[in-house]
Task: structure prediction
Amino acid sequence: MNFLERINAVLHHQKPDKVPFAPSENLIPRGDFEREMRNRGMGLYAERATYWSETPNVRVESKRQVDGALTIYHTPAGSVSTGKNRRMIEDVDDYEPVIFMVNDTVFHADYSVYSNSVRDLGADGIVRGSGIEPPLEDIVRYIGAANLEKEQRAHPFASLEGRPEQFAKLLKALEQRTEKLLPLIEDSPSELIPVGEIGDAWTPEQFKKYILPFYQKYVPRLHEKGKLCSLRSPTASPYGALDVRTSKLKAFKDLIPQTGIDVVEGFTPPPIGDLSLEEARATWGKDIIIWLNFPETILLDGAEKTREYTINLLKSNATGGALVIGLTSMRPMTDEAMEHTFKEGLRAILDAVEYRAKGQEGKGAYVST
Result:
């Protein structure tokens, strides 16, 4: 099998010759190393937009300041701004301009960038297109995930339980915007699409009450159009530079099957994440495809430990279930020694995948359903 055949087999619950290794394209150094890895079966994972949007009645102004750039959005309902340590909604008066912007959004399909990438990668990669996400995730984006709890305490208008007028009005506008976008996603050529993420802005109880209904409404509609829906599990880093939300995935493990999604993407096992592959598989069964984010602490700990960790990881999935090994987050390379360790680690992952496949007479870590 070539890479594309292999990963399509996994995505459609068929048996591949070995577990696909599909790191994000922006994390792999270009040149002879990439060619070597592709020749060994590695594929690239790319993400491309399938639409663009505009707000024709909003004027955008940019200003440079000592502490960073400031972007100001002027609407007939007032102005709001974003910048360093500033979110678009800082006070109750900011709601109306944001609601105007949401209602003013016009979407345009453009599948050319996606299609060109599919053509260029050929059998050496897979491309994921644009998707949709729960309106409450957008609200977090406007307010800021890290500040949401503080904002809810300081401003009653941000409370979920009370659903005050302004908050409810913004939520309704975002829901209507999703409905406008949905036909473009349904008609896009991309089979694999994202439909939200597990983050730290909500407790499992809030997720179940406010966000789960979104999945139960839209995932079946997307399935009817032949889409594979991916739930993003944001990647984590022990160094604090990247998202740390993955560490809370264990608390959501029983809710994930209720979403109806096909793929959990960016699943980071221990020692960074708090949910092991074995426990996830025991909870989710074989129906959910697990797309791993390989822990960078292991990768940078040397080739031998990376090889051993990967073999054990694959063994932990031996009871069955579709699996992809990916790499979705990584610190920038700071010197030649780090880059050398990184490359040797990636080679070791492929070593383990090939060893496991041969050692199990071609079954690898995948057991067909």
In short: The domain at 3-50+108-134+183-359 is CATH 3.20.20.210 (TIM Barrel).
